[in-house]
Amino acid sequence: MMAKTFSLTVAAVSGLLTGGPTELAAQEWSWPERAKDLRELPADFPPERLSAVMRGFTSALGVRCSYCHVGEEGQPLSTYDFVSDQNPNKDRARAMLRLLGAVNEHLDGIERSGPPVNMWCHTCHAGRPKPQTLGEALEERYEAEGSEAALTRFRELRERYYGAGAYDFTPSSVARVAAEFFARGDTALGRRMLEMNVEDHPDAVTSHEALGDLLGEIGDAEAARAAYRQALELSPGNARIQAKLERATSRLERARPKLERARSKLERTRSKLERARSKLERARSAVAPRTRDRESWPPPYSKM
To answer: CB–CB of 67/82 below 8 Å?
Structure first.
């Protein structure tokens, strides 16, 4: 079964990598005729197949040789110690190969409803070293470094992987992740993610609706109403969004008298402050001549 898995992997990877010189070729790396210390691959694995499998790993995980082997990135492959087991990722890779073989063996025992299904490294990794969902990746950074770091990580992942399929940046997915942070009390992070979601997907109803939901929860009825109106423009006649818009409008109308009273109180406070400032300036003006008189006393005397 493992032999079948590797044969299929080599075929798939070879198809992906044909069509141009690789960096391995550019470094004129010569694969050994007989590799040392192969534990999960056949001991007599030919160099061309070993090359295809290794290149397949780097492609599936979006990494370089130094991810699993002992060597310095940017240096010739001739300086790498490929036999060494000092890099713990090498043993992890071996364990993952055994897991892959076991999964495919299990799949063989399931009655198929169509063409056979096989697992590959890229089935889960999809170009990521660690196969995580967007929410898991942000949660990990959030727990380690806090809100700002999680938002920075969101930007980094979006910049690198947007449209690649590694992470789900669809409007509904981002909205769910933002809602999770909001539920745990981090309103600022949830709001910023939803605002970026609108920037990325201005024509998606979900983007505007989700932002309106959060804004309504934090009491910003006016901003929530604007978000719902935008969503309704994209989905005319949507009864759910229409109901949300009406509730936001109703809350805004109920809050308007209180808002007007607060504005009136603020204006009165500002007026009192201006009067106090004016009184202070008059007092300073009155005190200034007396201060100058004291500074000039006693008057200077001329020598007799």
So the answer is: no
